Amino acid sequence: MTISSSFGLLVSALLAFVFVASAANFNRDIEVTWGDGRGKILDNGQLLTLSLDKSSGSGFQSKNEYLFGKIDINIKLVPGNSAGTVTTYYLRSQGSTWDEIDFEFLGNLTGDPYTVHTNVYCGGKGDREQQFHLWFDPTKDFHTYSLLWNPRRIIFSIDGTPIREFKNLESIGVPFPKSQPMRVYSTLWNADDWATRGGLIKTDWSKAPFTASYRNYKADDACVWSSGKSSCSSSSAWLSQELDTAGQQRLKWVQKNYMIYNYCADTKRFPQGLPKECTAS
Ligand SMILES: *[C@@H]1O[C@H](CO)[C@@H](O)[C@H](O)[C@H]1NC(C)=O
């Protein structure tokens, strides 16, 4: 073997190592924390499944805590008759005045659409729900669900299409999560007491176990919180990222065609006036 070819091998071995080290791996990034074996990491860390049966659901959490981040995951939701099941995917901090950024996927009867429920909590207070139907069947394939959380805004996206933006409007007195580190959590559980048409449709346990699958957890662009300090990824464009014109148009398209509930339009719920972020221009 010549020197140059062994050098070439060394370089490609190093590149392969760098690639593997940065590639998504559930064994490295995630802990299954609930469900007594119903949550599984498979395929050398490339696949994670959560399942739900009559005795229990299951759940996982990220090993890291983050103070801001751009976090992506691919999810394939429970197929078939998933009515009564709820798959959650969210960021949350600790304690009684926690911050939280939520995706929740409410199952439905076969052929009826999932509801994607979103919320933002700050200091333990939420009440900022927006709900959507989807422009595709989320049970047929994996789709990318992303949370961008930087000091200026929170953007919820699906396959790169923004569905919701929550801006930092502290300047007009709206609280914004920015000082409590959060962990990523996901659970699959039974909520047939409320999820499907207010609890009218019950989970069909003859179809159990129900399974949701996950791939490609990616938190490369994030500030990891450890021993009271935050250390951010070297590329930091995401820290000031905002919606460009195309993104704003996509967001409008989703909100016009797929939004089924918006707290900002629920004047009955807020007889003293809508929350401030709803009327800020
Ligand atoms: C289920 O499907 C019905 C009928 O299309 C729809 O009204 C409802 O929002 C869907 N979602 C849930 C969670 O029931």
From TrEMBL:
<dbReference type="InterPro" id="IPR013320">
    <property type="entry name" value="ConA-like_dom_sf"/>
</dbReference>
<feature type="active site" description="Proton donor">
    <location>
        <position position="104"/>
    </location>
</feature>
<feature type="active site" description="Nucleophile">
    <location>
        <position position="100"/>
    </location>
</feature>
<keyword id="KW-0961">Cell wall biogenesis/degradation</keyword>
<dbReference type="GO" id="GO:0071555">
    <property type="term" value="P:cell wall organization"/>
</dbReference>
<dbReference type="InterPro" id="IPR010713">
    <property type="entry name" value="XET_C"/>
</dbReference>
<keyword id="KW-0052">Apoplast</keyword>
<dbReference type="Pfam" id="PF06955">
    <property type="entry name" value="XET_C"/>
</dbReference>
<keyword id="KW-0378">Hydrolase</keyword>
<dbReference type="GO" id="GO:0004553">
    <property type="term" value="F:hydrolase activity, hydrolyzing O-glycosyl compounds"/>
</dbReference>
<protein>
    <recommendedName>
        <fullName>Xyloglucan endotransglucosylase/hydrolase</fullName>
        <ecNumber>2.4.1.207</ecNumber>
    </recommendedName>
</protein>
<comment type="function">
    <text>Catalyzes xyloglucan endohydrolysis (XEH) and/or endotransglycosylation (XET). Cleaves and religates xyloglucan polymers, an essential constituent of the primary cell wall, and thereby participates in cell wall construction of growing tissues.</text>
</comment>
<keyword id="KW-1015">Disulfide bond</keyword>
<dbReference type="GO" id="GO:0016762">
    <property type="term" value="F:xyloglucan:xyloglucosyl transferase activity"/>
</dbReference>
<feature type="domain" description="GH16">
    <location>
        <begin position="4"/>
        <end position="214"/>
    </location>
</feature>
<keyword id="KW-0964">Secreted</keyword>
<dbReference type="InterPro" id="IPR008264">
    <property type="entry name" value="Beta_glucanase"/>
</dbReference>
<keyword id="KW-0326">Glycosidase</keyword>
<feature type="glycosylation site" description="N-linked (GlcNAc...) asparagine">
    <location>
        <position position="108"/>
    </location>
</feature>
<keyword id="KW-0732">Signal</keyword>
<dbReference type="GO" id="GO:0042546">
    <property type="term" value="P:cell wall biogenesis"/>
</dbReference>
<dbReference type="InterPro" id="IPR016455">
    <property type="entry name" value="XTH"/>
</dbReference>
<dbReference type="InterPro" id="IPR008263">
    <property type="entry name" value="GH16_AS"/>
</dbReference>
<comment type="similarity">
    <text>Belongs to the glycosyl hydrolase 16 family.</text>
</comment>
<keyword id="KW-0808">Transferase</keyword>
<dbReference type="Pfam" id="PF00722">
    <property type="entry name" value="Glyco_hydro_16"/>
</dbReference>
<dbReference type="InterPro" id="IPR000757">
    <property type="entry name" value="Beta-glucanase-like"/>
</dbReference>
<keyword id="KW-0134">Cell wall</keyword>
<keyword id="KW-0325">Glycoprotein</keyword>
<feature type="signal peptide">
    <location>
        <begin position="1"/>
        <end position="23"/>
    </location>
</feature>
<dbReference type="InterPro" id="IPR044791">
    <property type="entry name" value="Beta-glucanase/XTH"/>
</dbReference>
<dbReference type="GO" id="GO:0048046">
    <property type="term" value="C:apoplast"/>
</dbReference>
<dbReference type="GO" id="GO:0010411">
    <property type="term" value="P:xyloglucan metabolic process"/>
</dbReference>
